[in-house]
Amino acid sequence: MDFTSHDIAIIEQALQRAISSEPKDSKVNHYREVLSKLRNNAAAAMIGSDKRAVLHDGLRYDYDDSSDML
Asked: I want to staple 15 with a disulfide (CB 3.0 to 4.6 A). Which of 24, 35, 41, 46 is the partner?
């Protein structure tokens, strides 16, 4: 499943609210762990999407070996 940057921002906000309103430290630690993973994976995904954009520049190269037909 691909998340947009907007989706990630909403999930991040929800986790931050859960961290600030949760009285149990054990749950807070889990929320912080998930938030950390989300941020790391989101950063990696953004870098990956930039590389894909460079690799797929919209140009298609068609190599024609018409010299064989002479």
From this structure: 35
